[in-house]
Design a protein that fits this description.
By secondary structure, this protein is of the alpha/beta class. It is built from 7 helices and 8 strands, in the order H-E-H-E-E-E-H-E-E-H-H-E-H-H-E. Strands 1, 2, 3, 4, 5, 6, 7 and 8 form an 8-stranded mixed β-sheet that branches. Strand 1, helix 2 and strand 2 form a beta-alpha-beta unit. Helix 4 (about 160-170) packs across helix 7 (about 245-260). InterPro entries: SAM-dependent_MTases_sf.
C-alpha cells in the first residue's frame, strides 16, 4: 500500500492526539455542552465528520438510550473502543447520504468545511435536512481560518495573515473555506427555521484578560501551532509549489506570532443551529 494512502501507527497516534486536543478546546469554549438546541430525549443522532470520535463517544455516554451513527471518510482514525450505542462508519460526505428520510432527531456537523467540495454545500445542507425528523435540529460548528486580531494589530505583513490569505485561496477552485461565514443563509435556503448563528472568537494564545478566555487560549496555543502546519503542508508545497524551506520559514514566523500576546490573534468560530419545521 502506498504511503500516501495509509497512516503509519506513529502518524495515526499523532493525528488522534491532535484531534483530541482540538476537542478539548471546543469542550472548554462550549463549557462542556455537546448540544446547543433544545434536544432533550433524542432516539437517533448522526455525527458528520467524527474525527477522533470524542464528540460521538461523549454523546453516546450522555444519551445511553439513543443510537449514535458517526461517519468520517478516514477509516484509520476510528476509535478502538466505543460505547455499545455508538456505530462509526466510513462515508464520504461529498456523496449523497444513504440514510433514510426522517431517520434522525439531531445531526451534528463539525469541521467539515475543509473537506466539503465547493459544489457540494447545497446538497449537503439538503441531505442534513432530509434525514432529520420533523422538529429535529442541525448543529454546525466551523472555524473560519481567516485569522483576526482583537486589537487590530495584525497586518497583511504578518506571517499569520499571509498564512490565512494563502490557505483560503489555495483551494478556491475546489473548496469554499469561507463557507463558515454563510452557514446561516445556507441552512435557511435548505428549509431550516429558527436558525441562529453565533461567532465566537477562538483565541490562539492566552491574551485575554478574562480568566476563562485566557485558559481557552492557553489550551489552544499548541493546537493552533500544529494545525497551521498540518493543514497547509500539502497544499502549499504541492498546489502552490512552495519549497519546503519557504514553507517552514512561513510556519516558524506564524508560530512565533501565535506566541505574541500583544497581537491578540484569534480564529472566528461559528456555531449555527437550525430546526426542520414540525409536521
Amino acid at each position: 500500500m502506498a504511503e500516501s494512502s495509509r497512516i503509519i501507527p506513529s502518524r495515526k497516534s499523532y493525528i488522534q492526539s491532535q484531534l483530541m486536543r482540538q476537542h478539548l478546546v471546543f469542550r472548554k469554549i462550549f463549557d462542556g455542552r455537546l448540544i446547543f438546541p433544545p434536544v432533550e430525549d433524542p432516539k437517533k443522532i448522526l455525527d458528520c465528520g467524527y474525527g477522533s470520535g470524542a464528540w460521538a463517544i461523549e454523546a453516546a455516554e450522555k444519551f445511553p438510550d439513543a443510537e449514535i451513527i458517526a461517519v468520517d471518510i478516514s477509516p484509520h482514525l476510528k476509535p478502538e473502543e466505543t460505547p455499545n450505542n455508538l456505530w462509526c462508519q466510513v462515508d464520504d460526505l461529498n456523496e449523497p447520504f444513504n440514510f433514510k428520510p426522517e431517520e434522525f432527531d439531531f445531526v451534528h456537523s463539525r469541521l467539515v468545511a475543509p473537506g466539503i467540495g465547493k459544489s457540494r454545500w447545497t446538497g449537503y445542507m439538503k441531505d442534513c435536512f432530509k434525514v432529520l425528523k420533523a422538529g429535529g435540529w442541525l448543529q454546525m460548528v466551523e472555524i473560519y481560518f481567516n485569522v483576526q486580531s482583537d486589537n487590530g494589530t495584525l497586518t497583511e505583513e504578518h506571517g499569520l495573515r499571509r498564512w490565512s490569505k494563502t490557505f483560503l485561496e489555495v483551494y478556491e477552485d475546489k473548496k469554499d473555506l469561507r463557507a463558515p461565514t454563510r452557514l446561516q443563509s445556507m441552512m435557511e435556503a435548505a428549509g431550516f427555521v429558527e436558525v441562529q448563528s453565533r461567532m465566537m472568537p477562538l483565541p490562539l494564545n492566552g491574551w485575554s484578560r478574562d480568566e476563562r478566555d485566557r485558559d481557552i487560549g492557553n489550551l489552544n496555543c499548541s493546537n493552533a501551532k500544529d494545525l497551521i502546519n498540518a493543514m497547509a503542508l500539502w497544499p502549499f508545497t504541492e498546489r502552490l509549489e512552495m519549497s519546503l524551506e519557504q514553507f517552514y520559514v512561513l510556519i516558524a514566523r506564524a508560530r512565533s506570532e501565535i506566541d505574541d500576546l500583544n497581537l491578540r490573534p484569534y480564529f472566528p468560530l461559528y456555531v449555527v443551529i437550525g430546526k426542520k419545521p414540525s409536521a
